[in-house]
Design a protein that fits this description.
213 residues, mainly beta, Glucose Oxidase, domain 1, two-stranded antiparallel sheet, 10% helix, 24% strand, KFase_sf, Cyclase, KFase/CYL, arylformamidase activity
């Protein structure tokens, strides 16, 4: 069984959303030969998942979801033709959502992970209001994207987060290597977060592998 790692490594100097804390790693003095490190980072660092409480008042925190909520079947949707800071139209999604399993994950492949650690990464495509609503109506329980946000990072929009999180659809951002997934194929996916009690999100080690036929 081949597992496909869909995560960016967490390290100092990595790309973060404007205003979010940058990761910091420090060595802790210990008795040789033991090594211990202190890690300081935000809940939305790197490849991460948004809980409803990230935006929705009184929304669920990351530990209020059962673990199985993060283990899903899902599909990849190809959107490589979208340009810088342009909305993804619902029409680009609709034909490809026919393969979506009930309550599954939709992984949006824009190809923007190629610009990770560059200024262009911040000018990624984003979901139009109609596309976000379509994903809710299609029955997705999680939406992932290989970009900094499902909303425009340039314009500071929030309609996609509002629509998805407001309808109990989880969001995973900063995915990587979605080009290794085949369109129309159903994958098993894992987006397990750290059990950060009462918090609004968590970094994840996102994985995908072929679902059993």
């Amino acid at each position: 069984m081949q597992f496909i790692d869909l995560s960016h490594a967490i390290e100092q100097g990595m790309t973060v959303f404007p205003g979010d804390p940058e990761p910091r790693v420090e060595a802790v003095e210990t008795e040789p030969p033991w090594q211990v490190s202190r890690l300081v980072l935000g809940t939305h660092t790197g490849t991460h998942i948004d809980a409803a409480s990230h935006l929705v008042p009184e929304g669920k925190t990351i530990t209020q979801y059962p673990p199985e909520r993060f283990l899903l079947t899902g599909i990849v949707v190809s959107l490589e033709g979208c340009g810088e800071d342009t909305p993804i139209p619902a029409e680009a999604l609709q034909p490809q959502l026919k393969a979506l399993p009930a309550g599954g994950a939709v992984l949006l492949r824009t190809g923007w992970d190629l610009y990770w650690k560059s200024e262009r990464y911040f000018r990624h495509p984003y979901l139009s209001p109609e596309a976000a609503q379509l994903l809710v109506e299609a029955g997705a329980s999680l939406v992932g994207i290989d970009a900094l946000s499902v909303d425009s990072s340039v314009q500071g929009t929030r309609h996609a987060h509002t629509t998805l999180l407001g309808n109990d659809v989880l969001i995973v951002e900063n995915l990587a290597r979605l080009d290794r997934l085949v369109g129309g194929v159903v994958y098993q996916c894992s987006f397990l977060p750290l059990p950060l009690r009462g918090l609004d999100g968590s970094p994840v080690r996102a994985l995908a592998w072929r679902a059993a036929s």
